[in-house]
Amino acid sequence: MNSTLAALPIGGSARIVAVGGERSFRRRLLELGFLPGISITLLGRAPMGDPLDVRLRGCRYSLRHHEAEAIVVDVPPNGTAAAQ
Amino acid sequence: MSLPIIALAGNPNTGKTSLFNRLTGANARVGNYPGITVERESGTWKMGDRDVEVVDVPGSYSLTARSAEEQVALRSLLGLDGIQRPHLAVMVIDSTQLVRNLYLTMQVLEAGIPTVIALNLIDAARAEGRMPEVERLRDRLGVPVVPVSARTGEGLDALGTEVTRVLLKPELGRSSSPWRYPAAVEADIRALDSMVQASSPDEARAMALWALLSLEDDDDLLGIPASVRVAVRERRQAAEAAGRDLDAEVIAARYRWLDQQEFVRDPGEAPTLTERVDRWLLHPALGGLAFLTVMGVLFQSLFSWSDPAITLIETAFAALGDLVRTRMAEGLLNDFVVNAVINGVGSVLVFLPQILLLFFLIGMLEDSGYMARVAYLVDRVMRGLGLHGRAFVPMLSGYACAVPAIMATRTLESRRDRLLTMMVVPLMSCSARLPVYGLVIAALFPAGERFGWLPVQGLLMVGMYVFSTGTALLAAGVLGRTLLRGKRMPLLIELPPYRMPRLRTVMVQMWLRARSFLKEAGGVIFVTTVLLWGLLSFPRLDLDPGLSDPTPEQEAEHSAVQLEQSYAGQLGRALEPTIRPLGFDWRVGIGLIGAFAAREVFVSTMGLVYGIGADVDEQSQPLREKMGAQRHADGSPVYTPLMGMSLLVFFALSAQCMSTLAVVRRESGSWAWTGFLFLYMTVLAWSASFVVYQGGQLLGL
User: Fold this and answer.
1) How far is CA B489 from CA A67, B16, B225, B614, in A?
2) Pairing between strand B5-10 and B29-32?
3) Which of B102-116, B295-309, B676-690 has the lowest mean pLDDT?
4) pLDDT attached to residue B285
5) Which CATH number do you get for residue A44?
6) How far is B280 from chain A (nearest CA, A)?
7) Residues of B in contact with A27 (CB under 8 A)
8) Which residues make Cβ contacts (< 8 Å) with residue A54, sequence separation at least 6?
9) How does DSSP assign B455-507, residue by residue?
10) Which residue of B255, B278, B380 is in closest CB contact with A50?
11) Residue B136: pLDDT above 60?
């Protein structure tokens, strides 16, 4: 089921389907390895709900909710709490 | 004979700076890259039988760029536009995050740059069970690969051996770059590789790829020929029309190859120690508490803990001045040596305790990995001001002193963020304003007075901090939306693994910052102190020769007259019409001129002006009484509570500090921005004081 990174629950994992957004920012994401098929986990959110704390390929990054909405992910059907 | 040059390149947070310090010791030099204000650190690596020059390339995740700052990595690796070309690159890799780190290395290898790979943090990778397959890396990449640990010194000799081998025989460090791109991408490369400037076919290929991925219609890249821009635009438009995604094709091809090689056994997704620590440090409530504690310590140390060292420097220079004053023949030379030279050196060195402390603390925060968490935690707030979360530490430091705070803007990546922070930090109420606030508040508002149940004096003091913070935030909001409006850059920061800070790295970096302050801002501050001394001391007025043994009162009286007819005194009088609407007379004008040396000098200058002598502080009762007794020509008192408010507002907002201006000049590299800072703050201070004083009078206060 397709969703976006921004809509994942905290602790939830999904596979990246597509990365969108403004070109140079998108390129930076791709170059860090945000590529289709790669698993991504939302670890948490900053105190005021934004930005997000995500794990990808064993590395941690922070990006804002707005940009995370442009990252389309495929949530596994058996729920999202796969990343324990 | 110039030494062979080695570029040390890699991702941020790989321990590259540690390795640099290990190799070069403390003999590094800090300079700037030509054309932009990005620091360039270099030093000599003594490798037994030969010396080489090591250049620390700014950390980056990729060579592709959109700004001139990001372009530095490419320029320094290929030796473009006035930068000397390195003989070889040492790629510093965080072994615990191997694949992402290798992405940058692939770009460097493609360009045909002789390369040695240093697998840093190898001890951490071993401990975490993420040990890279070293033999396979050597085999597939075709260049020397050396496991090292900058922390323990492991592998550094082997690194030296490989570097020497490749220096003697560059072919050993060149890779065949065995990864492939889709045919359509190869066609794009062929269309461009004859147009780009390059010294070899490999480099031409790499530059063509770089241009295809980097160039945009509104980028800020330097030195790109128009013909290349046109060709890139055509190829990209054609690719788009064909439904291709050029950026993803290239980047995915590289990662696909990397993933296929299985250079590291998959460590699984088990939460690391860092993630477990972050459950506490980034916890919505506990994380906030931890953040406040860390920032509280930082602030407290700048504000209070640096005080003994500052007092020591001030006392030592005062003692030295006294010693020289009494040992030397009286006269102009004595005055010059004591009040201009010794005082000038003292006024530079007095900044060192706070600069050393701040850069020590920043170093610890950066090196431990917490600085990225600071940016993460405050991003939501700072974004409203148009600033990056990393600007928080410089802004906070501004409450102690603008000089180290402005130097701390170096930790910001974009020039626009650095400039914006520099333009508003001087509005923060620094500790040098405190004595001025103290004097004015104590002299004009009686100690026992209360507003409701709150003491007026305390209320005013707190009010000044609220006022200055509010103004600084407002100024950031306004400047960030007008003069310094930048393309809104989305946030993307790495939250690196926590590591134990390396004291040695932190100390070396701290020392380099302090040294560059002494060398580059110290001179300006010294010269300005001497100039100010000249303004306050000339033309000379000799003590009445009839007085062979003047009393202290007579000496103080003479100093007041001397000051009154000095150039500063004349300037104060000339300024009076402009500051009269603010409620100030020419004597206050002299105080404002004196305050340029440092704001707290206002207090001792007023002591001189009123014939009490320079040896006063804000607690001085005679000074308070003298101020209370001052009258305008029409007989009305000069110092009224309203004038006091006007003076407080003026001091809160004006750029009354030559050291701040000297450091802004150094950090921005621009006289225009320095001039703008001075002008806008002066206009702001004048207008606000005008409104307070004139408005107050209209209201009959």
Assistant:
1) 11, 26, 26, 51
2) unpaired
3) B295-309
4) 87
5) 2.30.30.90
6) 12
7) 64, 213, 247, 251
8) A5, A40, A41, A42, A43, A60, A61, A62, A63, A68
9) EHHHHHHHHHHHHHHHHHHHHHHHHHHTTT----PPPEEE-PPP----HHHHH
10) B380
11) yes
pLDDT digits (tens, 9 = 90+) for B370-394: 989 999 999 988 888 888 888 888 9
Q: What is the pLDDT of residue B489?
A: 73
- Determine whether the interchain pair A51/B381 forms a contact, defined as Cβ–Cβ distance below 8 Å: no
Residues of chain A with C-beta less than 8 angstroms from the C-beta of B377: 46-47
Interchain contact B377–A (C-beta under 8 A): yes
Helix, strand, coil fractions of chain B, as percent rounded to 5: 60, 10, 30
Q: Residue B416 above 90 pLDDT?
A: no
Whether the Cβ atoms of residue B362 and residue B377 lie closer than 8 Å to each other: no
| Amino acid B266: pLDDT | 66
Q: Are residues B692 and B566 in the same domain?
A: yes
Q: State pLDDT tens for residues B211-233.
A: 999 999 888 888 899 999 999 99
pLDDT, tens only, B59-74: 999 999 988 888 989 9
Q: Please state which of the ranges B112-121, B493-502, B517-526, B681-690 shows the lowest mean pLDDT.
A: B517-526
pTM, to two decimals: 0.85
B14 shares its domain with B47 = yes
Full DSSP string of B500-534: ---HHHHHHHHHHHHHHHHHHTHHHHHHHHHHHHH
B534-576 per-position pLDDT tens digit:
888 888 776 666 656 667 777 777 777 778 888 888 888 888 8
Both B412 and B529 in a single domain? Answer: no
Note whether B631 and B637 are within 8 A (CB). yes
Q: What is the 3-state secondary structure (H, E, C) of B3-52?
A: CCEEEEEECCCCCHHHHHHHHHCCCCEEEECCCCCCEEEEEEEEECCEEE
Contact between residue B427 and residue B653 where contact means Cβ atoms under 8 Å apart: yes
Cα(B591)–Cα(B602) distance, rounded to whole angstroms?
A: 5
Regarding whether B107 and B210 lie in a shared domain, the answer is no
Residue B64 belongs to domain with CATH number: 3.40.50.300
Helix (H) or strand (E) segment spanning residue B385: none
Nearest Cβ partner of B100 from A59, A64, A83?
Answer: A59
Look up residue B270 and give its DSSP letter: P
Per the model's pLDDT, the better-predicted residue between B688 and B439 turns out to be: B688
**ipTM, 2 dp:** 0.93
pLDDT at B568: 85
| Statement to judge: residues B578 and B620 lie in one domain | yes
- Fill in the amino acid letter for B549: D
3-class secondary structure, B137? helix
Domains of chain A: total: 1
Q: CA B164, B168, B169, B173 torsion: positive or negative?
A: positive
Q: What is the pLDDT of residue A20?
A: 94
Q: Residue B17: what are its φ and ψ, rounded to 5°?
A: -65, -40
Question: How close B200 comes to chain A (CA, Å)?
Answer: 25
> Can you state the angle between helices B370-384 and B286-300, rounded to 10 degrees?
100
Task: Work out the average pLDDT over B645-662.
Answer: 91
**Nearest CB to B213: which of A27, A49, A58?**
A27
Does residue B152 sit in the same domain as residue B241?
A: no
Q: Does B247 touch chain A (CB under 8 A)?
A: yes
